[in-house]
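Q: I'm writing a short methods note and want an example of a predicted protein-small molecule complex. Could you take the sequence and the SMILES for flavin-adenine dinucleotide and return the bound structure as tokens? Please keep the output block clean; save any remarks for afterwards.
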Amino acid sequence: MKILVCISKAPDTTTKILFKDNDSVFNEDGVTFIINPYDEWYALVRALELKETLGGTVTVLHVGLASSDTEIRKALAIGADDAVRIDAEPNDASFVAKEIAEFAKDKSFDLILVGKETISFNGATVGGQIAGSLDLPFISLATKLDIESNNAIVEHDIDGGIEVLECEMPLVISCSKGMAEARIPNMRGIMAARTKPLLVLPSFGSQRLTNTIKYSLNPGRTTCKFIDAENAQQLIELLHNEAKVI
Amino acid sequence: MAAKTDVYQHPDYYLLDELLTDEHKLIRDTARAWVKKEVSPIVEEACQKAEFPKQWIKGLAEIGAFGPYIPTEYGGAGLDQISYGLIMQELERGDSGLRSTASVQSSLVMYPIYSFGSEEQRKKYLPKLASGEWMGCFGLTEPDHGSNPAGMLTNIKDKGDHYLLNGAKMWISNSPFADVAVVWAKDEEGVIRGIIVERGMEGFSTPETHGKWSLRASATGELVFDNVKVPKENLLPNIKGLKGPLSCLNSARFGIAWGAMGAAMDCYDSALRYSKERIQFGRPIGGFQLTQKKLAEMITEITKGQLMVWRLGVLKNENRATPAQISMAKRNSVHTALTIAREARQIHGGMGITGEYPIMRHMMNLESVVTYEGTHDIHLLITGYDVTGISAFE
Ligand SMILES: Cc1cc2nc3c(=O)[nH]c(=O)nc-3n(C[C@H](O)[C@H](O)[C@H](O)COP(=O)(O)OP(=O)(O)OC[C@H]3O[C@@H](n4cnc5c(N)ncnc54)[C@H](O)[C@@H]3O)c2cc1C
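A: Understood, no commentary inside the block.
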């Protein structure tokens, strides 16, 4: 079985978020990046588990610049067989999906796995767009994935319950929590990653359809205000004038 | 005791990560992830019960903590010295006892077998030690000879087809469960030799030392040799004299210099977080100047120590690190860590003495670390000797 796992990177969750160029660009200075957890913990690890039981290969694909090679090496250390990086700035979801589709279209992958979303941009559209471009079925937010003969058996959360789907391969699946348990690379994996192939390809020149104009941060949590029990009038005034809820 | 999530974030005030390769960072992050997952949730309980959790052995082997710099053909990971340092840093960030177990296996057991052993000895022992199938210990210290190991009484006598080993070693990390012991003993001419003793040899026993207030998650014991017949092929052929054990200690001390910084960083990280969360007199205690003085001095000392061990790692990679330079770093790192642990304990107030926070455990552990592998004062005398050329030992 041939599995393609698409990985993106995201700032470590403890990163202080700052912007530059009139708030239109995320400032990466001093930021530690990690593989997007949905891609690493669920998509990649489940792909490796399937490979370990059914045989086959796991390729990781990343659209991004050379600074991402650290994260790609980690994916190889965890166990992917080879890696591909499409050398382009991944700043538009439709562009990224098109690039992945262009790469994958003649490679006959049985499964294309993506994380349900990146934890930074939370767009959650790349998987669907890849499937659209390749005219493949797409199952989103999968929490369990098994293979029976040529079919993928997929569980996914629905409101108040679980839906079990069956779909013939090839298909695209976006992976969510529950599908696998995060793996820590071991030393043998880290050493093997040194010599595993990392193919760098130029961009296929897909079109960018959106353009970020501006970022801004949530106002964030403000401090609590304590009001004396006798002072109900002050509470009402604050709820009315400041919180504007009554 | 409820297992708490380990939220450690490592301080890097001078962006020293930029001095590391991607592979260094991957190795460090792997060790850190393993410690967070497998060590932090149970280490307090292990210390309270004074038990070394045996399940750690497999994980230590997998993250490359047993013989990181031993070549791969002998089962090691074939890594450089900075990688070794980083692994020790992360392990000791978890617990000094855990790091001690890995230090002993790597620097005090695998290193001498690799450096001074015959090809047969390397092939027989190293792969099994790297995989954790066998655990090793290192017997140098004796009841009456600690800082002055040259005075040792343990001895071997050539009996033709074997050596007869007699004597006793004390304070030996891993001894209660070790499968092999690298033991230093004097031959009939009074020359110190290294010999590999295996569990099960007649007359060899390893009573455990109980009642420690320090390194409680690491097993410590004695090695007692009562007319033990050791096969001749177990003698390390390629080393004679005190140089043998001392070069092992060099390697271990290098790891401790990195390791103690890990303990220091853990104490600082915990104190910094606590000082922002704990409110007294209506504001976070981190807002008071006296707390800030403590924190500011901690991060300054940590940054200095990080730079020192990184530079030492570069020198060691180039085979240029002198024993005296390693002594200086071991002494500085452990002293830094102990001072920070004590200050961090104060910042945590009463909570600082409980197992809810790692501080008191680090502090008590470091009381061993400041003594073993050359005491704080002995390392000072080494530096003194190095800069003056005059020995103040005797
Ligand atoms: C938990 C633990 C684990 C250990 N593990 C091992 C192990 O695996 N293998 C092993 O071989 N050993 C091990 N040791 C032993 C350790 O290396 C010794 O404790 C250490 O070398 C000090 O020896 P000592 O305890 O006999 O103290 P002493 O040598 O008696 O020292 C007592 C005090 O006198 C001072 N002193 C001694 N000589 C001088 C001098 N010339 N000038 C000034 N001051 C001096 C010392 O600095 C110290 O403060 C371990 C120790 C501990 C506590």
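A: Remarks, as requested: Residues 102 and 153 of chain A are 26 Å apart (CA to CA). Chain A has one domain: 2-218.
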